[in-house]
Amino acid sequence: MGKHCYVIAEAGLNHNGSMKLARQLVGVAAEAGADCVKFQKRNVATLAVGPLLDAEDDRFPSLGATYREIRESLEFDLDQYRELKGLVEEKGLDFLCTGFDVESVDFLERLGVDAYKMASHSNTNLHLLRYVAALGKPVFLSTGACTVEELDDAVQVFKDGGAELTLLHCISSYPTPVEQVNLAMIHWYTERYAVPVGYSGHEIGYLPTLSAVARGAVAIERHFTVDNTLPGFDHKLSLVPEELKAMVEAIRSVETSVGTIETGVSEFEQVTRGKYKVSMVSVGSIPKGAVLTEEMITYKNPGTGIYPKDAGLVLGKRASVDVPGDTLIDEGMVQ
Predict the structure, then answer these.
(1) Which whole-number Å values give the CA distances from 214 to 185, 222, 257, in the listed order?
(2) Is-cis flag, bond preceding 175, omega within 30?
(3) What residues does 286 pair with on adjacent strands?
(4) Are 181 and 199 in contact (CB under 8 A)?
């Protein structure tokens, strides 16, 4: 990733089980300039205990009447995912998918994914993390809703397995109020774990996301949708197409402005330095042979002469020429 902030456009479940909508989302991500499109894969049968899966759920009637029905309506089969993966890659983007269980990881292996995203939901599921780490592929791991000790264990799993790990600072609150975003954790995670750290945001809008980039986030993950009013889990907290595009453009500006650590005066500042820094100037006329003292000099623009820190180059020496008043002094005027 380097200086380029890797932008993951999280289509997630916002396709609502429609391939037409999923294809549209891929196009939106490509148009916005994202680097990657991410989906999600679950084995609904093992997602939760039966009574929870079969409980009545009236949140999204168009998607189902129970939690199981809603979840099942949002799943694609292997052929559908192959089509989506091909479309994503045809658009020049990377394909990424969150695997929520071992069965889904096996599904994604058959699909031929190059990397994995592990949700905050799974960062305490050490059995699943070890299974993914053993595959030896790059992994993005979100940090939401876990203790430091739990995250220590999760990170160690991937370090022990030799997997390339990127943490994504995440607050599992949907949507996340700005005052809870806590971007200071990006630096803290970087120092504690010595791995790249990005940001997976759930705030409304994207100001905290831009702030995360300025604080050194190497990757950004944000949900997006074609319409905030659609039924489903994530539409309301997702960016609409114009917001996604504007966010990516702003990220590119922010990462350019962050720049690199460079000491000294840049070539762009040299003109300003020459105009507005101060140099040694004679207060009044100084006759040839006079010894230059501090009382004879002052400091004014431009900054093209002798700087105050270099006054010793001429003070205490005799003038080799007559120096008019209000004149820049240089070393050629003394002996």
Answers:
(1) 13, 16, 8
(2) yes
(3) 323
(4) no
pLDDT digits (tens, 9 = 90+) for 118-131: 999 999 999 999 99
The pair of structure tokens assigned to 108 is 């994604």
How far apart (Å, rounded) are the C-alpha atoms in residues 115 and 108? 10
Task: Give the burial class of 191: count Cβ atoms within 10 A of its Cβ; 0-12 exposed, 13-18 middle, 19 or more buried.
Answer: exposed
Residue with tokens 């070539």: 267
Residue 243: count of CB within 10 angstroms of its CB: 18
Structure tokens at 187: 């630096």
Q: Give the pLDDT score at 269.
A: 85
Q: What 3-state class would DSSP assign to 114? A: coil
Query: Phi then psi for 57, rounded to 5 degrees?
Result: -140, 110
Domains and CATH numbers, the chain: 6-258 (3.20.20.70), 270-333 (3.90.1210.10)
Amino acid at 295: E
CA angle 35, 15, 54 (to 5 degrees): 130
Sign of the CA dihedral with 105 first, then 114, 134, and 158 last: negative
* Cross-strand partners of 94: 36
Tokens of 328: 């820049």
pLDDT in tens, 234-287: 999 999 999 999 999 999 999 988 877 777 778 878 888 889 899 999 999 999
Q: Tell me the C-alpha distance between 37 and 330, whole Å.
A: 62
